[in-house]
Specification:
This protein is mostly helical. The chain has one domain. The protein has twelve helices and no strands.
Length: 243
């Protein structure tokens, strides 16, 4: 078990818990993080260069990235609740039809929002993102999940948005540090082209950071249940009954 923070979390605490879960489960998360960064980078490169194969690269990215994020959310929930998380079990859970529909709707819309200007994507995550852990954890039907998402996020959407704004700020600082490092080495006369340093560093940084998006949804889901349903008290009573 990673940490059972079944209590209301401040934004900084929630981010700390999400980072902790990510570190503990990173061996399972890593293949999907690499797939997310690799295919999204391929799609972005094809889009901006408008070279041959643009449509195929974009299609691969659109199919791969939301599914990889969905699987990472499954891993995060298993890790958070102290269950054994494996690549195979996470993929199996993600292949349920309702989970696939919700995952592609939420993460697809979020990614398009992020491309459109970052903030729209974060707002979509704040309003609809919890639908992903709901459908994974509670196995609801499509419209039941949508209705439950609306009820559960009432009063906590600002908290979820603040979580992702903080994360976006930290990611922005890390990205700036990567650029400064790459061009700083050139200024020092190391003799390396900045792109030789920039792209590997950027890839590693993105692969390490990207799991926070789906892991954060798992943390925010539990936090919303604590705030709206006294989930922390339910867990304490369950622990007393089973002790």
């Amino acid at each position: 078990m990673v940490t059972r923070e079944f209590r209301p979390l401040a934004t900084g605490e929630a981010l700390d818990v999400a980072i902790n879960v990510t570190k503990r489960a990173f061996a399972v998360l890593a293949p999907f993080a690499v797939a997310t960064v690799g295919t999204s980078g391929l799609g972005a490169y094809a889009f901006f260069t408008l070279g041959p194969g643009f449509q195929l690269a974009a299609l691969i990215s659109l199919l791969t990235v939301p599914f990889a994020l969905l699987v990472m959310c499954v891993v995060a929930l298993d890790t958070y609740f102290g269950r054994t998380a494996t690549v195979a079990s996470a993929i199996r859970s993600s292949l349920r039809p309702t989970a696939l529909v919700i995952g592609y709707l939420v993460f697809g819309a979020s990614l398009m929002g992020l491309v459109a200007g970052v903030l729209p994507g974060l707002v979509i995550l704040a309003w609809a993102g919890i639908a992903v852990p709901i459908v994974i954890e509670e196995h609801g039907r499509l419209f039941d999940t949508i209705a439950r998402t609306w009820r559960l996020t009432r009063g906590v959407r600002g908290t979820i948005l603040a979580f992702y704004l903080w994360f976006a700020l930290i990611l922005g600082v890390l990205t700036a540090a990567v650029w400064i490092t790459a061009f700083g080495l050139e200024a020092l006369g190391v003799g390396l082209d900045p792109s030789v340093v920039l792209w590997p560093l950027a890839f590693v940084t993105a692969a390490a950071a990207i799991p926070i998006f789906p892991v954060g949804l798992a943390v925010m889901y539990v936090d919303a249940r604590v705030r709206n349903e006294a989930f922390d008290l339910q867990q304490r009573l369950e622990a007393i009954r089973t002790s």
